[in-house]
Amino acid sequence: MTSLSSETTSVPVLTGPRPALAALRRGWLHLVLVPIALLWLSPLLWILVTSLKARTEVFDPAAGFWPQALEWGNYPAALSVAPFGTYLVNSILVTGGILVAQLTTITLAAYAFARLNFPGKNLLFTLFLLQIMFPIYATFLTNFVTVRELGILNSLPAMIVPFVASGYGTFMLRQAFRQVPTELADAARLDGCGHFGILWHVYLPLVKPTLIAFGIITVVTHWNDYMWPLLVTNSEGVRTLPIGLGLLAKSDSGADWTRLMAATVVVVSPLLLLFVIFQRRFVDSFMHAGLK
Amino acid sequence: MVVGATLQARIREAGLAYLLLLPSLVFLAAFTYWPILRSIWFSFHDVVLGDSKIIWLGLENYQRLWEDRLFWKAFGNTAFYTIITIPVAITCALLMAVALDSKLRGMAIYRSAFFYPVMIPSVAAGMVWVFLYSASYGPINQGLRLIGLPDTAWLYDSTWALPAIMVMSVWKYSGYFMLILLAALKLVPSDLYEAARLDGVSAWHRLIHITLPLISPTLYFVVIIGLLHSYQIFDYVYVMTHGGPADATNVLTFYIYQNGFQYQDIGYASTLANVLLLFVGGLIAVIATVFGRRIHYLGR
Amino acid sequence: MAEVVLKGVSKAYAGRPTVHAVDLTVADKEFMVLVGPSGCGKSTTLRMIAGLEDITSGRLLIDGADVTHAQPQKRDIAMVFQSYALYPHMTAYRNMAFGLLKTTNLGKVEVDRRIREAAEILHITHLLDRKPNQLSGGERQRVAIGRALVRQPKVFLFDEPLSNLDAKLRTRMRGELKRLHKELGLTVIYVTHDQIEAMTLGTRVAILSEGRLQQVGPPMELYMRPANTFVATFIGTPEMSLLRCAVTPDGEGSLLQHERFTTTLAARPGAADVFLGVRPEEIRLTRPAEGMTRGIVERTELIGSEALAEILIGQDRIVARMPVSEAPESGAEVSLSFDLTRARLFDATSGRALAAI
Questions:
Q1: CB contact, 8 Å: A3 with chain B?
Q2: How many CB atoms lie within 10 A of CB B296?
Q3: Per residue in B50-97, pLDDT tens?
Q4: Residue A6, in any domain of the structure
Q5: Pairing state of beta strands B45-47 and B54-56?
Q6: Which residue in the set A186, A192, A201 is minimally distant from C52, CB to CB?
Q7: Same-domain pairing of A110 and A250
Q8: What is the complex's ipTM, to 2 decimals?
């Protein structure tokens, strides 16, 4: 019944008006959803179209929506004004560094919270959870002072250190660890594993979906990070892609939208491409993250 | 002797636990809790960035804040942004989620269309919307012209600048909230809907009386996430308006930044940061008490 | 040689004792079953033997060596879990190889040889490349047993391994386990709550209740000579009926007086207040005038070739077993006799079995 689509208009009388009604209702739904989806997609469309226009076309209201000729030259022009290669490498190093550091710290901490007993467990767990309430936007000022005192301002580590511990990741992984039957850990003990053996051979392989989900969220978050890298960097050698893009926008100040949009395409496309390719994974990860 | 052996085992287990927690705790302490404590301490002092001299001020910073009209403006803007954007974005998200919670054709495409803004860096999103909002050649004004409306200089108009950023935020985050709500909707047992249909309950009432109560824990969670994401307005203000025009889009995070980094006044900026934390913390507490009590937990 | 000796082994959780000073010796090549109702401490005892739980007090010896506080992998034991606890991300082969590679220095060739050999014995050679979720319950069970077998440990521990199988498969696996035990000469400690499993599998059975060892012995001995009322009623279905009686000396012997009948005993049991314990098959319906006593039939149940009748004698309710053809109608008054040569007496206050009848 549910697979009937709007094409099946000639419904046999016996099945009654219901399928036809459902099809009609579904048709209405599309009628509402298509414009909204287009509205949502339009900024992306504008980025793409503008990145291929000639400079003057942008400012000419009579020029129409589509470019008259595809100006592929905007891309090399955008990439030549700033060292986007360096930005890309920095972005990869910072995001990768945060990912590796977080996966390590949350794995260890989550195991302790999920499987070990120790005094102060609840208090410490609360401290971990409360971290979620204090994002970098709430603590950036004094963290900047700390990073400055540590003498690591304007370096890649400065962009990584505030994010090494993750209360959210610890929580997610602890939940996942608790789903692993204790008998498996018992079996591994009899098979000669210590705590680290159990963690490595039993727990981690079994919570891979959670690790991937958390990893995707972390990568998306920190790949796109703007404020903190903006505050702690001041030279080209350590800047990340979003910072580079921001600088370009500032220097161009609206003068050259085509070049800017070409740069934007370059900056947003890695994640968007990954998202298109691994759509299911991404969607599942963000869905998973919401379900405690 | 024997009791000693189990005690020893327990001590060893606790020792291992602390060892495993140590890396996290060090960074948690250094970059979450130490900054908060320090910020409280700073707020009672005159602290200048890069100057090791610290002068005790007592409550002077707080008094200054009380009389600072710009602070109240930034506070008002922050509250306005938070209190309007979150419910609007969540309502959008809920409607999207309910619409997509069926075996709809092209469901994956709709879902991606709504969700992709989450993947875009805030700086890129902000820039694009600056373009979209541009007074003379921006697509929005071009569209409005078609239906005969006058031009508005959105981001340069003190009435419209903040709402313009809010519209952008709804676009940016609804998809995220939608996805979380969609996951919750899928967990609502379908026999509940079937039972309601047999009882002749209309679709609207099914939404109000079955769906919403059952996904209320997730709604609550989404509100909290929304609150935490609302901090990110800094990025948009920084990229799109830099607080202008005439501080119409100056929000607390941005005002903290201005005081701390432009005027190097760490003491006052810390005072502002504390107020911001209190504000968000207070909102969460209010939501937890008002909302938390009405939540229907499914199963558990 | 693999002898397991528990000397006063106790367990307390947060000061609350759950296992009380269990003394038990499991001989080499013995199939010892620990049985009792849930919460009796049998699983905890097994887990203490495995090293998965600390022993609060007492000593544990395996093969003469004190392993009271040894790590599980140092005890030379292997365990089969109730849920099988197969690693879901490993194939059956890897599941069996994992512990072997971790605990021993055997080469790949020897490991492979052992796995193939065990797989042969268990008829799972064709399943070795599958992961647990591709196996049926019975197949998982075999792989779990295989994982224990390849270790060639001194002692095999089984924690309710059959309780997740359906009734038919359970019977088959029971036979299989018995065969393995006999053919391979294994020393087994086996925990179950199912007394039929205990009776059919064990060379000896240890019965636990509320953390205390009630009786240890071969199955038939437990059935015939239960040490106390707990064992008497726990073993056997339907359970043994207990009739409250008073004992008074009478010449050389004594007089056994129930509220509805009196009979003489040749001996003096040494307690005045007793329970007379009779099993369903020790009750015989008689012609009206010939019975020891009379009772009212409350309910009859036909269970195939036999029938069970619940009969009220005064305050006491007893269950009798008989051929279907002899089953009385419910509500009828019947005459009956007990086979006193097999019946036994228990001290009504302590519950302990009395020497003579």
A1: yes
A2: 10
A3: 777 888 888 889 999 999 999 999 999 999 999 999 999 999 999 999
A4: no
A5: antiparallel
A6: A186
A7: yes
A8: 0.88
